[in-house]
């Protein structure tokens, strides 16, 4: 008697960590709904494994999101990975539209996804929310990005309590620097940077064990965790040294 494979939905699967996650989950035998906006990239991704089903839509389009997946899907793992990063180089000329764009994609769209797909989660399922190690400590120029990811971390903590009676687990993912098309645009040193494939393996392992805080690489993220315990009066001089000149 054959059994249905487990099913995962991954957003932001066109490139970077999302693409690597789709391939990792497919290799582990999951049916993978790989979501994103770039049809050519997702079609190419689906050619690498028969387990990958491309789903092309914009997460910020609520109507498209609501109709993107079959209503009868029973989801084992849901990874809300899609995101963007833009820096505020001149805080005195604060760019409110940039701030809105980043918050919309990184935080508000996650709410749309939860509204649509939480009701399709299986009992015992696991939801992964993509935060960042930037949520641990304030990083210069990252007013928009860091605020959005801190919001994700807070959201994950509250959901982990509120969804416990429904037996739905929450993982919050705090990567350090991962080599992706997004980080390729950075103009600063990225200590401890790892490949997207390694990030995907760490996330799959953590999700499979229902780990709440999935963070990597450990040396980098533990350093930030320790620094986050310092009073801000001590952390502030360190942050000032990172200001781009």
UniProtKB/TrEMBL annotation:
One Pfam match: adh_short
Native organism? Pseudoalteromonas phenolica
Q: Name one GO molecular function term.
A: oxidoreductase activity
User: Which top-level group of life is the source organism from?
Assistant: Bacteria
Q: Which UniProt keywords apply?
A: Oxidoreductase
Tell me which family the UniProt entry assigns to this protein: Belongs to the short-chain dehydrogenases/reductases (SDR) family.
Q: Which Gene3D superfamilies match?
A: NAD(P)-binding Rossmann-like Domain
The record's Gene Ontology cellular component field reads: membrane
Check the record and name the PROSITE patterns matching this protein. ADH_SHORT, PROKAR_LIPOPROTEIN
Q: Does the keyword S-adenosyl-L-methionine apply?
A: no
Descriptive protein name: Short-chain dehydrogenase
């Amino acid at each position: 008697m054959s059994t249905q494979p487990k099913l995962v939905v991954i957003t932001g699967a066109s490139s970077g960590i999302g693409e690597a996650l789709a391939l990792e989950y497919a290799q582990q035998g999951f049916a993978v709904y790989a979501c994103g906006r770039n049809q050519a990239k997702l079609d190419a991704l689906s050619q690498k494994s028969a387990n990958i089903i491309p789903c092309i839509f914009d997460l910020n389009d609520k109507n498209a999101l609501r109709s993107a997946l079959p209503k009868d899907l029973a989801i084992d793992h849901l990874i809300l990975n899609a995101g963007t990063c833009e820096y505020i180089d001149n805080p005195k000329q604060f760019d409110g539209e940039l701030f809105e764009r980043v918050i919309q994609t990184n935080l508000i769209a996650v709410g749309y996804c939860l509204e649509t797909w939480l009701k399709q989660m299986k009992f015992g399922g696991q939801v992964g929310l993509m935060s960042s190690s930037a949520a641990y400590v304030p990083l210069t120029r990252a007013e928009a990005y860091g605020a959005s990811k801190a919001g994700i971390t807070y959201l994950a903590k509250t959901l982990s309590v509120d969804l416990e009676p429904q037996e739905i687990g929450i993982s919050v993912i705090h990567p350090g620097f991962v080599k992706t098309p997004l980080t390729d645009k950075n103009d600063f040193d990225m200590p401890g940077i790892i490949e997207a494939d390694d990030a995907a393996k760490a996330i799959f392992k953590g999700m499979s064990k229902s780990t709440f805080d999935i963070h990597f690489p450990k040396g980098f993220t533990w350093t930030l965790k320790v620094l986050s315990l310092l009073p801000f009066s001590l952390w502030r001089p360190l942050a000032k040294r990172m200001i781009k000149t």
